[in-house]
Amino acid sequence: MPVPDAVPGALRRSPAVRQGLSVGLATGLYGLSFGALATAAGLGVAQACLLSLVMFTGGSQFAVVGVLAAGGAPVAGFASATLLGLRNAVYGLQLAPRLGLRGWRRLFAAHVTIDESAAVSAAQDGAAEARRGFWAAGLGVFAFWNVATLAGALLGDALGDPQRWGLDGAAAAAFLALLWPRLRRRETAAVAVVAALVAVLVLPVAPAGVPVLAAAAAAGALGWWRTRPARGTA
Amino acid sequence: MTGWLLASALACLLLKLAGYLLPTAVLADPRVGRTTDLVTAGCLAALVVVQTVGGDGGPVLDARLGAVAVAAVALMLRAPFVVVVLLGAATAAGLRAAGLG
Q1: B20 touches chain A (CB under 8 A)
Q2: Residues of chain A contacting residue B93, judged by C-beta atoms under 8 Å apart
Q3: How many Cβ contacts (< 8 angstroms) between chains A and B?
Q4: Residues B80-100: pLDDT tens digits?
Q5: What number is the ipTM of this complex?
Q6: CA A63 to CA A85: how far, in whole Å?
C-alpha cells in the first residue's frame, strides 16, 4: 500500500501516535452529538452506549438513529447501518497485510477499523508508523467516542423536546458533514445527487427507512456497472 | 428494540472482521472498492434528504431546510464537524422560535 504523496510535511514529521490521538479527541467530540441525537430519537442512554461500544462506526450509528427518529422499522435501521458499514470491510482488506496480525488480535484490530484509523494509518511513512498510527487513532477515537456518547446521551435526555433545541436540524447537518468530504470526487457527487433524487421520489410512497435503502441500491448499481473490471483479473 | 440494535451492531462488527479474513485478492477487482464508496455516499445523501424533508406521508419543508443550508455554507468555509452540527441545531431552533417552520 503506497503512502499518498498528498500528506503534508508537518504531519510527516510528527509522530503517528500524536496524530492518532488528536484525531481521537476531535472525533470524540462529535460523539456528543451522536449521544444527544440517539436519546432524541427515543433510545435510552444504555442503548446509545451499546451502539458506540459494539457497533463503533459513526456513519452506521447515525443511520440507525436517523431511521428510527423518522419512524422507520428497526429492520430498516439494521439494513442502513449494514450498508454504511460495508466500507469498513474494504478498510480491513487494505489494513490486514500492513498490520500483519494473526489469531485473536485481528478481532481487536477489526473492532477499531473505522474511517479515522484507516486514514491515519494510510498517511504514515513506513510499516511501523502505519501500525502505530492505526492503533493510536483507533483506540483514541474509541475512548473519546464512548465517553462523549455517554455525556451526550445524558445531556440529550435532560434537554427534553428535541425539536425545540433544533436537534432534527442537527441530524440533517451531521449527515451533510459526513457526506461532504466524499463530494470532492465529481463522479461520487453525481451519484450522490442521483441517490438524493431516488430518496425524494421514494419518500412519499414507501415506509420510513426504505428511501435510504433504495438510494443505496441505486448508487451501488451505478458503481458496479459503470466501473471497468481490471484487465486480466477475474 | 435492544435486540435489533445489538444485531445491527454485531453485523457491522462482522463486516469489519470480514475484511481481515477475506483474501486480499478481493480488492483486485476495482468494482469492489468503487461500489462500496458509492453505496456509502448514496446512503449518506439519502439520509440528508430524509432528515431534511422527511415527514409523515411525504416531503415537508420546514426549519430543517434552513439548518441544512447554513450547514452547507459552514462546510464550504471548512468549519469542523461539531461547529456544523451546532449551527444546524441553532438554525432550526432559531427559525422555530421565530415562528418559521
Answers
A1: yes
A2: 164-166, 169
A3: 324
A4: 888 999 999 999 999 999 988
A5: 0.93
A6: 10
